[in-house]
Amino acid sequence: MNADPLTVADAAALLRAGRVCAFPTETVYGLGANATNSDAVLAIYETKGRPRFNPLIVHCADLAMAETVAVFSPLAGELARFWPGPLTLVLPVNADAGLSDIVTAGLQTVGVRIPDHPLALELIAAVGRPLAAPSANPSGRLSPTTAEQVRRGFAGRVPVLDGGPCRAGVESTILAVDGDEVVQLRAGALAREAVSEAIGRPIGVAASEAAIAAPGMLSSHYAPAASLRLDAAAPEPGEVYLGFGSPPAGHDSAVNLSPSGDLHEAARNLFSALHALDATGAPRIAVAPIPETGLGEAINDRLKRAAAPR
Ligand code: TXA
Ligand code: MG
């Protein structure tokens, strides 16, 4: 499989022809399509088995392109200082953008970001159009942080531009800007505290009810095949242990997210660790406690969804 790796030019040609193609970002791999071509965008939903009411993030090569897609208030412009980077802004959609309605699932807002990955930026620029891209996994499953995980997830049916393992490892932080309020809709690879400090104002978290009402925040998500037990001080018989920091005395971690207790390293390793533990066929995974600060907020969010009843 994959004797000839795709080049950026190959991937751009597929996307310009209205096909889907997976590509690397600094967070996770995205399943891309031309955001201005409804048939191409539909193919994303079909490939993923994604519910149609769940809108897609639009990826841009630069601020000029982002400004064709969304309307930026001065506050939104300030937040754009984190681009390229793992931040998605939910802003009023620019009606002249020519975006497919399917991208926004009929909402008046659009999620937009400029990813911090050289291949992603080159690809978007080569296509010359914004790319709609959800994470490149079948709906409800673990997000991929390597090209191989994308290929396996879709049984080799999706072309992948391989950019190596993703640096951040969890999805972008999603912030909605509404007047002078900034609300976090999804914790992600950019810590809420860092943004709050930079713009000098507090950032609230969407109430969980609102978050569930917001499309895509389904409680069971990012699910491995194994069941998960969170906040486990030590594994019980029959469980494999996903550690963080020093393992409890007398127990080995099957995988350790970060032996030194570094949250960036843990975020980078999270989905790969769950993919790897799943591949062992272990039915139950016990997960060490993770502090709820910085990137811990995103890690705990993904773990809670992975552990949710389905
Ligand atoms: O890091 C990421 O964000 C990755 C990479 C590929 O960029 N993408 C990603 O996309 O995680 P996806 O589709 O798996 O998650 C996008 C989330 C969904 O929960 C969706 O509901 C939300 O963004 N979203 C998109 N547009 C929105 C909007 N207009 N209002 C509220 N939520 C929105
Ligand atoms: Mg996803």
From TrEMBL:
Q: What UniProt keywords are attached to this protein's entry?
A: ATP-binding, Cytoplasm, Nucleotide-binding, Nucleotidyltransferase, Transferase, tRNA processing
Q: Which EC number(s) does UniProt give?
A: 2.7.7.87
Give me the reactions it catalyses. Answer: L-threonine + hydrogencarbonate + ATP = L-threonylcarbamoyladenylate + diphosphate + H2O
The entry's localization annotation reads: Cytoplasm
Quote the Pfam families the UniProt record gives: Sua5_C, Sua5_yciO_yrdC
Q: Which segments constitute the YrdC-like domain?
A: 5-190
Q: Is Transferase tagged as a keyword?
A: yes
Instruction: Determine the domain of life of the protein's source.
Output: Bacteria
Which family does the UniProt entry place this protein in?
Belongs to the SUA5 family.
The cross-references to PANTHER family, in alphabetical order and at most eight, read: SUA5 (PTHR17490), THREONYLCARBAMOYL-AMP SYNTHASE (PTHR17490:SF16)
Query: What does this chain do?
Result: Required for the formation of a threonylcarbamoyl group on adenosine at position 37 (t(6)A37) in tRNAs that read codons beginning with adenine.
Q: What is this protein called?
A: Threonylcarbamoyl-AMP synthase
Q: From what organism does this protein derive?
A: Devosia nitrariae
